[in-house]
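for the writeup, i need someone to sanity check this before i put it in the appendix. the sequnce is what the collaborator sent (i think, or maybe the updated version? ugh). structure was predicted straight from it, no edits. if anything looks off just tell me and ill rerun, i have time this weekend
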Amino acid sequence: MNEVIVEGSYKSRRILAENVVNFCIKELMPRMKTLCIEVSLISLKGQDAWGWFSEGDNNREYHLEIEKSLTEDEFIETLAHEMVHVYQGSTLRIKDRSSKRFWKCKDGKYRNYNDVDYAKQPWEVEAYRMEGPLLKKYKEINCGDTS
């Protein structure tokens, strides 16, 4: 059974984070049952991002850091973005080795895209492409929002 641990911020925000993570697992990785995802809701002010993702000891353990003061939509979208990275790691589409991230290309070979501009790194392109639809579907299911 998947394990989701959320710490920091206030109770309603922790509950929202847990719900979004579980929703993303169901949408992106419905057959996976051995994930362990820790989410820290902290201040990332002064950083260059609203969220971070890192792999633990294996491709089933992850730690996310999310800016706690985001609006609800920004918060859900940021969590969805980082959960796309969890999906990429747990399905071995990306691998972190020696402080470098490698992307599994269509030919099955892993390539280093770390010297490519951030917005053009394939794992970021995919995460940005998927975060909006995940936000929309989450809100439709959980908030009755059809906008």
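Strands lie at 3-8, 36-42, 51-55, 61-67, 94-97, 100-104, 110-112. The two ends are 33 Å apart (CA to CA).
thx in advance!!
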